[in-house]
Fold this sequence. Notes:
Structural class: alpha/beta
Oligomer: single chain
Bound molecules: nicotinamide-adenine-dinucleotide
Strand content: 15-25%
Order of helices and strands: HHEEEHEHEHHEHEEHEHEEHEHHHH
Amino acid sequence: MRNLENILGRVRKSAELLELGDKLIEILTSFKCIWSCDLPVKIRGKQQLIPAVRVWHRSPHNDKPTKGGIRFHPNIKLTDMQAHAIEMSLKNWLMELPFGGAKGGVAIDPGRCSKSELKAITEKLVDELDERNMIGPYLDVPAPDVGTNPEIMNWIRQRFAQRRRTRETAQFAGVVTGKPVGYGRDGIPGREQATGYGLIEVLEIVLRLKRISPDNMKRVAIMGFGNVGANAARFLAQKGYEIIALGDVDGAVYRRDGFDPDELSRVKTPHELKAAKITNHELLELFDIDILLPAALENVITEENALHVKAKIILEGANGPTTPEADEILESREILVIPDILANAGGVTVSFFEWARNTGYAKDPRVPFNTEYDKSILTAMSDILKKAAVEVFEYSSKHQLSLRQAAYTVAIKHVASLLRDKYLV
Ligand code: NAD
């Protein structure tokens, strides 16, 4: 619940700063759809009912889908999904992508399921969503999140196509993003790296705008070594940052002299690295780091540990890793927080490129249509992130707001008149 209240509080504050009025605030803090279902699936030979949820926040774009990740994790809370759906809206709007926000999850531990069980769960999820007309290239387009990956996205796409191909001529590939790349797969090069790469692009532009010398911001600790954390670690190390601590669900590791890019590319988990064992709790409070990069779950920087964080910058790879109480403490200690909806928006931006290519949406000149070269796709993504970062920085300086509150406010400002027209408020 806390996560949702945090987001709603920040949205209300931004809407008040923009003097949007109570009716529009009501719209912005409500949901278009909250869906839940128990998926009947056989796991380890036994029929089980697995809870699944999908939430759509608001969108001013009636002819475009909502967009957001699907999470496979044993602990799926509806209120967290609601919070993340709003964050997805804000991220889309901040980057001026033509989507509303959504989020969903299935309450399973993917590490304890076989591949065929995961496929059966995924297909059942698509069946249940599609029966209610809740998934499609112009309805709602999922993407990878915690515990899901390109292979699962491909299963979603294939199942949807299997169900729909005789009924209509929708562009099936656009039903989901984060798909694998290659013949017949229709993913976009660079999507897997996008969020990690984008984090560094945003970090470096914020350092430049804030006139902070990058030479004093080299030592990094990362909590989470999945899609976001591992890619960020590898890109940071390649660019000369020192990654001195890495954590995942099984704990963390620390090496004072840092890990080199080659060894980071070779390992699947931090525990394969030769290094001292520490806890994630210790990682968050390390004394010899400049940048702390949470890239796992929400609410890890709290009022209990914010006083003990020694990093000078928090770069939010995860969604919602910092509570509002922690935000206040960090602000009073002049620790700079680069907020999730700006910092980690690389993923949804490249997902937008993928969707646009799959559906032939050619209106937006920012989409790189004719390249399979991942670097040029990541460059096109960076242009969008940097423009948003400058806008957020300028708004925050002009109105004396934290980067987070400025990011929320700029995002809502981008869609305020569209929402007014839609809801007549
Ligand atoms: P992932 O499943 O690939 O990786 C998650 C990582 O977090 C794993 O290393 C896992 O071991 C670790 N982890 C899980 N529980 C933990 C715990 N209790 N303590 C410490 N570590 C723990 O997920 P991901 O796609 O990298 O997503 C990570 C975060 O980034 C999520 O908040 C997600 O919503 C957000 N995000 C992801 C993307 C994307 O493109 N994948 C984009 C934007 C934001």
